[in-house]
Design brief:
With 157 residues, this protein is of the alpha+beta class. Helices cover 25% and strands 34% of the residues. The protein contains three helices and seven strands. It has a seven-stranded mixed beta sheet, with helices on both faces. Strand 3 and strand 4 form a beta hairpin. The radius of gyration is 15 Å and the shape is globular.
């Protein structure tokens, strides 16, 4: 990581990503979700084109990423998912800022819609801190224990 470059947040649609950014996003998702977590599944699932992509860059280096999906695409609610911090960038609180930005983005972009996520079960308390509440029982998704978690948007928002 270049310590002379200030990390910059970016929120863009699929068509606004350049090919280098898209490559880095897909590479990080595969590195963490498939290789590090030893979970074989189809990450490129046809939803990225309709998503908003929130990412943190330090120069050309991707530090953190998540995608936000509109209501009705994956779930009735809007969703946030593919939440990931690059291994070399962990411990800098980027994950907290990433989730905060995702919630703010979805509430502003799709007002009146709750936010659902398919969270890895071991992160339940982390997401509870952002007012996500567990719905239902733990289940296995792509070989990893998950929970359905929902952020209830306050009335009038």
């Amino acid at each position: 990581m270049d310590t002379n470059v200030t990390p910059e947040w970016q929120t863009v649609g699929f068509d606004e990503l350049n090919t280098r950014q898209l490559y880095e996003i897909l590479k990080l998702r595969q590195e963490v979700f498939a290789v590090e977590q030893t979970s074989i599944y189809l990450d490129v699932d046809g939803l990225d084109q309709e998503a908003m992509h929130i990412s943190l860059w330090e120069g050309d280096e991707l530090l953190a990423y998540e995608r936000c999906l509109p209501p009705g695409l994956q779930e009735t609610e809007s969703t946030i998912g593919r939440i990931v911090v690059a291994p070399a960038a962990r411990g800098r609180n980027f994950g907290r800022e990433l989730v905060r930005r995702g919630v703010e983005h979805n509430v502003a972009r799709w007002p009146g819609h709750n936010i659902r996520m398919h969270a890895q079960a071991h992160l339940e308390k982390f997401y509870n801190a952002f007012e996500f509440y567990t719905e239902g029982e733990e289940y296995i998704l792509d070989g990893i224990p998950h929970l359905e978690m929902v952020f209830k948007v306050p009335a009038g928002t």
